[in-house]
Design goal:
This protein is an alpha+beta fold. The protein is built from ten helices and 18 strands. It has a six-stranded mixed sheet with strand order 4-3-2-1-5-6, covered by helices on one side. Strands 7, 8, 9, 10 and 18 form a five-stranded mixed sheet that branches. A three-stranded antiparallel sheet has the order 13-16-17. Strand 11 and strand 12 form a beta hairpin. It is elongated.
Amino acid sequence: MDRTERVRAVMEEKGIRQMIICNPADVLYLSGQHTNSTEHFMGILFSADGKCRLFTNPLFAIIGQLPEGMETVSVSRGEKDTDVMKSFLKPGETIMVDPMLQASFLLPLMKDMPETAFVPDDCCMSTVHAVKDPEEIRRMQISSQINDKVMGRLRSMLKEGITEKEIYDRLEETYRECGADQMAFAGVCFGENAAQPHHIRPEDRKLKKGDCVLFDIGGKYDGYCSDMTRTFFFGEVSEKQKKIYELVLAANRAAEAAVRPGVRFCDIDRAAREVIEQGGYGPYFVHTTGHGIGMEVHEAGGRVAADNETHVQAGNIFSVEPGIYLEGEFGVRIEDLVLVTEDGCRILNSFPKELEVIPADMAAKQ
């Protein structure tokens, strides 16, 4: 079953006869076309009658071949996007709408078609994205292998006196040198900054002996993302730091051991959370255990969370990333990407995750 057929199957299952898709990642996934426009509607209209139409305009050329059965609708200069869209919409039906559809397009449609129900897509595309095909898996494996190389480069940069910002500023170039198309995101955290689960703004905070170092990094290869977190200790590790690290590592391994087709995502979350709760640090594990990933760093279909009772399927790819965060002190997170196989899971990244103390450079940077 190809990707457009999978969309139609989910639509049929949910009783939806028409659906508007405009998220650039979804359009690329389904059509192979890059879209990025806020001035004109660029997206796909799926209909239950089998029609699949890609809306574009003369400013953007179609690159390569469209999937079989997908046709183009070009909005000419002077035409209103919504007028052209309306000519293909069925009045009186329920139309599923991409949550990213701009109000400048949606509101005129709602005004001109008051008898039509426009409902947000809260699970159709996430369901389609959740199971990766062999080509997607291949790209994500390569993307994670590149991420392993980048993590090794970051580890080698650590020396006394270097700042978070100095490392962060080298990351884009490092990703390209290692074979990625671009950096997708990065968190570079020293010491107390690692106690912020998402310390997204690097500082001039200098690395010193006794600090923990948390790298949460991801790149993109051929449209697909990687994501991995490793925590190191610089120069020395205290007993408390060691205890927290070993607890998080045990939680990471317990969750990964629970992954197999048929188990619920909430059960995987529980496997990690129980370890940390039993260790006495339950309140300091403040986020979900993981998230789906693919063309976007966060995909809704693979939330490893207490409220997600969806069953895991072979072909799912998601993160497993328990953590403990002690405000004003330090934080530890260990994250892998896992691919669900027919009888368990395979970890896509291979960078070691046993506790490591990085030797301190005694020639401190001035």
